Amino acid sequence: LRFDERVRVVVFKSEVKGVFCAGADLKERAKMDDAEVGHFVKRLRNLMDEIAALPVPTIAAIDGYALGGGLELALACDLRVAASSAKMGLIETTRGLLPGAGGTQRLPRCVGIGLAKELIFTGRQVDGQQAASMGLVNHTVPQNSEGDAAYRRALTLAKEILPQAPFAVKMGKLAINRGMEVDIASGMAIEGMCYAQNIPTRDRQEGMAAFREKRPPQFIGK
């Protein structure tokens, strides 16, 4: 996906009705020794980092349970859409653990430090409506009889992104992600570098031409 220039948006969904991702199999984990657990969690953390580093926008369609590592997967995405009946939580402390695949870092960046601490310290689960009110998800929708309401809303959101200039969207994602990690002056410099890369693109010329000619732009990602 990282190197396929035809890909403009990635939507993560589950094929299991009622479950987005239930997290690690603790029965399997119980059979591991301490070294194996550490290796397992490191691989999981690396996977989430790879998802977060995808150059195109990513959307998690949460139609059911997103618990522990499942919520960490959703947090590694750029955008999240949840069914109102979905259940989300970093529940690791209820099992003698703490989030180990990015949850302690991505949740506070998403909802704020105080609320993230409360959710992690208590292991509380929240539904789609509660998640929307705290900014954990971008949109919440009533679940439908097929059990894929969040996925359908995620596709609608993806279709809003698709017509936009692909390289400009990628640069926007890069500028936001890198800029969030530094002070604002450094962030402005990052934005400037990303903008400079976008200036010579054919899509920028197309966008200007389409505006002058009062027609929809036809972006090609170049």
UniProtKB/TrEMBL annotation:
GO terms for cellular component: mitochondrion. Gene3D superfamilies: 2-enoyl-CoA Hydratase, Chain A, domain 1, Lyase 2-enoyl-coa Hydratase, Chain A, domain 2. PROSITE patterns: ENOYL_COA_HYDRATASE. GO terms for biological process: fatty acid beta-oxidation. InterPro entries: ClpP/crotonase-like_dom_sf, Enoyl-CoA_hyd/isom_CS, Enoyl-CoA_hydra/iso, Enoyl-CoA_hydra_C. Keywords: Lyase. GO terms for molecular function: enoyl-CoA hydratase activity. Pfam families: ECH_1. Belongs to the enoyl-CoA hydratase/isomerase family. This is ECHD2 protein.
